[in-house]
Structures are given as structure tokens and as C-alpha cells.
Design goal:
Length: 510
């Protein structure tokens, strides 16, 4: 397997026209009347080439757009990339992150080995420079990613590595950018790790392999521990939900538990992060239609995001206690599969009447949530590509956010905003849980035909009980929406890593 493109980000004090590089990236707002003043000097050296592109109307500074300008050796850089920042009035850190992603995507597509980024300058003093460094680094990692592990042909080749410099001509600014870019690179790399796990084909990344990846990951991260329950241990513990879902596959289920428990930790109590990792969701006996069934290899995104988050917080050494529970199983049809009609006793002791084997996410997560409660997690947040209904409700742009605690919902919404991973608060609770009453067991695993995202969340809420709990349904942003395709290539976007790290940073007071 080949390495995913290696991206390194550093920060340097240098003037725009001095840096020798394949690609120099500068920003321009859509509502600016003329060329941004920060690049005017550069343009003078280019005999007004940048201004001409704008005057001709070839580049309008729209978010997601960019135009390549060749420098003819007049400055150190071989090419200048004008990157659109959108309207200045609306532009916040998210615009900067996106612009960095556009630039990095372009750099990879032209096989640049070195790129220089000075996108923050256009904002003047409007934004905090530490945060600028962070989001530019995040964006660079986000936009440069390509999932091509199994492409052996060199025809579609790309550079093996991309070296990125964030530059500024002011020493104090450089120090701040550097501080932020260190954080942003950790988060960006973690997010790309999640994307790779989510994108990996289901014949390669089945539960046992995912557990091996988790073990491999913690080996390099002091202070992070990993325990894996195999099928025998899951049976011993009577984790009936995850066993039922996984029993139809040759590849048996695993529960992967990671613990980050620094000695100096915030007094917030332990946070439990629970991830759905269905390595392939065929639907099981309630089999899915064949169109686009391959995308269900990404039904492990929630688990991948949880693993990546643990990697990031261990690298950042965040002072907050976190226990991660990744519920990994393959939902396959076969002679051993669980069936519609089965009654399953879950780990909590609650019984569930299975009416659709394709509603398997909640069947694995309920055991993970109960385990987190037993492990004394005071806050539980689960993340899952849980329902097509959530996509019907919200489209692909936002994740659904449900929960039983207003403060937690508010904190997660704020973290989503900071991380540029939008969520929308949706209802869950008693009315929806009412639909899940079964005549022959404690619960059914599906509700009525309406509000499927809300009934699914409410099913999980029954297992969270009195514990503070929130749920992220990431079925929509499992893949990039149309506007996001300007910033990233196809496949998983690892939605949730930035949100989670921002949330945990917030708890840790960082
Ligand atoms: N993994 C799917 C949900 C999904 C669908 C995620 C499309 C991403 C894209 C989930 O396990 C599922 O199949 N849910 C069913 C639930 C139904 C049977 C109540 C669904 O949404 O149809
Ligand atoms: Zn399913
Ligand atoms: Zn699923």
C-alpha cells in the first residue's frame, strides 16, 4: 500500500516576492474594489499581471475559486495562485480554512512540491493570528488529501510529498502563526487519518483490522491505552447488540476502547466518545438496494473519527479525560445473521425486537453507550452515519445533533462553528421513544415512517438514561456536499474530528 500524500507545514518570516516556491498563494475578497493592498507590491513586480486577471473579470474572488498566474521568473515563485476569500463582510476563520484547502488541492493537482501560503494577510488585523495559523494548517491538510492507497499505476501520479510554508513578514505574527499551525497540523493529520480509515475498502478494513490500526496508533502515543474485546469477550460480557449485528459476517465484531487519562485534567469528568464502525453495511437480511451500496464501506466513519480524535488529543496532550468506545462490526446477510423478528438482549439488559436488520447502528451503539456509562463517563457523545432520514431532513451540508442536555448541545454547536463542521439541533425524546415500544420486548429497533433520524436518536437516548448525552448523525456529511467538492476530493471528509477536538479543547480551557 502506498503512503497517503505526506504534507508538512512550517512557518517562516519572509516577504511575498522573496520566497522561492512552486506556488505562492494569496487571497482576494469578492467585494474588494481593487487588488488587495497586501498583494499590490507583489503585483508591481509582476507588472500588474494579477490586477489584469481581476480587471478582465477572469477572477472574482468568490469563495472556492482560484486562478493560476505564471510569473515568468519576475519573482521567486514560479506561479501565483489567487484564491477567493468570498465577501469580506461575511469572511471569518472558516473562509481562511477553505481558501487554504482550495490552494492545497490545486498544489497537489499541479504536482507542486513546495507551496507558500499568505492567505491570512488579506484579513489585516481582523483575526487572531494563532487561530489563523491553526485553520490554514487544517485547510492545507484537508485540501491536499487524496485517497489513492491502492492505485499502483503512475499515470495518475502525484507528488509524494508537499512542503507548505505559511509566511508573514512580521516576527511577532510568525510566532503566533507557528503556535497555531502546530495545533492545526495535528488536527488536520488526524482528520486525514479518519478519512483513510473510512475510505478503506471493506475487504481490507474489517473489525479485526480496525482494532489492529487502533493498537498501532496508540503504540506511538504515550499515555493513550487501547483494549480490544474480541468476539469471545463480547459474548462473555453479554454485549448482545454488537454480537447480533456482527454474527452474520466471517469477520467477527470487535469493541475497541481507548483511554486518555492525563494526571492534570479539567474537573469536567470523563467524556465518553462512542463511534459507529460498521465496516460494511449491506443492510443484512433486510438487504439494501445494490445502487451505491459500495458507499456503505464508509459506515465506519463515526468510529474512524473517534479514533482520530483520540490521536489528536494525545498529540496535543489535552488536559481532559476521554474514554473512546468504537463499536466495530460488519452487517452481512448469511446463515448466521440476525433476522427481523429476533429479540436481542443488549448489554444493558434491555431487550430489543429487531424489525429491520438495516437499523444496525443503534444496535451496536447501545452496547457502547452502556459500556461508557459503566466506565463512569459523565458525558457521552456518540457519532454515527446513522440514518438516511437525517440526510432527507438536512441534506449533506450539516450533521444532525440531538441530546438530553442543553448545555452540552450548546457547547457542541459552538465547537462545530469553530471547527467549520456545521450541525443542526434536532429533536429527540419521549414522543419519539413512544414509537419504539414493542409488544414483545422493551424496544423495537425502528419507529414509524416519519422522523427516522429522531426516533433513531431517541433509541440511543433510552440507553443513555440520566447520563448527559448527545448524538451526532453524520450520514449527510459522510461524503462532501456539492459546494465542499471545491475544497476536497471524493470520499470521506472525516466529519467530526475538528468539531470534537474543538469541543475537548474548550473543556480543557484551551
Ligand atoms: N448506515 C445506514 C444509514 C446511512 C444511509 C448512512 C445512507 C449514510 C448514507 C444505516 O445503518 C441505515 O441503513 N439506516 C436505515 C434505518 C432504517 C432501516 C430505519 C435507513 O436510514 O434507511
Ligand atoms: Zn443499516
Ligand atoms: Zn449503517
Amino acid at each position: 500500500m502506498k503512503q497517503i500524500i505526506k504534507v508538512e507545514v512550517s512557518v517562516r518570516k519572509v516577504a511575498l516576492d522573496q520566497c522561492k516556491t512552486d506556488l505562492l498563494c494569496v487571497g482576494q475578497f469578492a467585494d474588494a474594489k481593487a487588488l488587495d493592498k497586501t498583494i499590490k507590491q507583489l503585483d508591481d513586480k509582476l507588472d500588474g499581471a494579477l490586477e489584469q486577471v481581476i480587471k478582465l473579470g477572469d477572477f472574482k474572488g468568490k469563495a472556492g475559486s482560484s486562478t493560476l498566474v505564471y510569473t515568468g521568473g519576475k519573482i521567486g515563485a514560479k506561479r501565483v495562485l489567487l484564491v477567493g476569500l468570498g465577501d469580506k463582510k461575511k469572511a471569518k476563520l472558516g473562509a481562511l480554512r477553505n481558501a487554504a484547502a482550495v490552494a492545497a488541492k490545486k498544489a497537489v493537482s499541479i504536482k507542486a512540491k513546495k507551496m507558500v501560503v499568505a492567505l491570512h494577510s488579506a484579513f489585516g488585523g481582523k483575526l487572531d493570528l494563532i487561530r489563523c495559523g491553526q485553520v490554514m494548517a487544517e485547510g492545507v491538510h484537508f485540501g491536499s488529501y487524496i485517497y489513492d492507497e491502492f492505485v499502483t499505476s503512475e499515470k495518475n501520479g502525484r507528488s509524494e510529498s508537499l512542503s507548505v510554508e505559511l509566511i508573514d513578514n512580521n516576527s511577532a505574527a510568525v510566532r503566533k502563526l507557528d503556535k497555531g499551525s502546530h495545533v492545526g497540523s495535528i488536527i488536520g493529520q488526524a482528520q486525514n487519518f479518519a478519512r483513510t480509515l473510512a475510505n478503506r475498502p471493506p475487504n481490507i478494513a474489517y473489525p479485526e483490522k480496525l482494532a489492529a490500526e487502533a493498537k498501532k496508533m496508540v503504540a506511538d502515543l504515550p499515555g493513550l491505552s487501547c483494549t480490544v474485546f474480541d468476539e469471545r469477550q463480547l459474548r462473555q460480557k453479554k454485549m448482545g447488540g454488537i454480537i447480533a449485528v456482527g454474527q452474520g459476517s466471517e469477520h467477527k465484531p470487535r469493541m475497541i476502547i481507548l483511554k486518555w487519562s492525563p494526571s492534570k485534567a479539567a474537573k469536567t469528568g470523563t467524556v465518553g466518545l462512542i463511534g459507529k464502525a460498521i465496516t460494511f453495511d449491506s443492510g443484512g437480511i433486510s438487504i439494501k438496494p445494490s445502487a451505491k451500496m459500495d458507499a456503505m464501506k464508509m459506515d465506519k466513519t463515526g468510529g474512524a473519527v473517534v479514533l482520530a480524535t483520540m490521536r489528536a488529543i494525545a498529540q496535543l496532550k489535552l488536559p481532559v479525560k476521554v474514554t473512546a468506545v468504537v463499536c466495530a462490526a460488519e452487517n452481512a446477510p448469511g446463515g448466521q445473521s440476525y433476522r427481523p423478528g429476533d429479540v436481542i438482549t443488549t448489554y444493558s439488559g434491555k431487550t430489543v425486537e429487531v424489525l429491520n436488520t438495516d437499523a444496525e447502528g443503534r444496535m451496536v451503539l447501545c452496547d457502547g453507550i452502556h459500556y461508557a456509562k459503566q466506565q463512569k463517563c459523565e458525558l457521552i457523545i456518540d457519532i454515527a452515519t446513522l440514518t438516511g432520514a437525517c440526510m432527507v431532513a438536512l441534506g449533506m451540508h450539516k450533521a444532525g445533533l440531538m441530546g438530553n442536555d442543553d448545555r452540552l448541545i450548546k457547547a457542541l454547536s459552538a465547537a462545530a462553528e469553530r471547527g467549520g463542521e456545521p450541525v443542526w439541533h434536532m429533536p429527540s425524546g419521549d414522543e419519539y421513544a413512544e414509537e419504539l415500544k414493542s409488544k414483545i420486548a422493551d424496544l423495537k429497533n425502528i419507529g414509524s415512517k416519519y422522523g427516522g433520524a429522531c426516533t433513531a436518536a431517541s433509541f440511543l437516548g433510552e440507553f443513555a438514561g440520566q447520563t448527559k448525552w448527545a448524538h451526532l448523525d453524520i450520514a449527510g456529511p459522510m461524503e462532501p456536499s456539492e459546494p465542499l467538492k471545491k475544497y476536497v476530493t471524493d470520499g470521506s471528509i472525516g466529519f467530526g474530528v475538528r468539531l470534537f477536538v474543538e469541543y475537548l479543547k474548550g473543556l480543557a480551557g484551551k
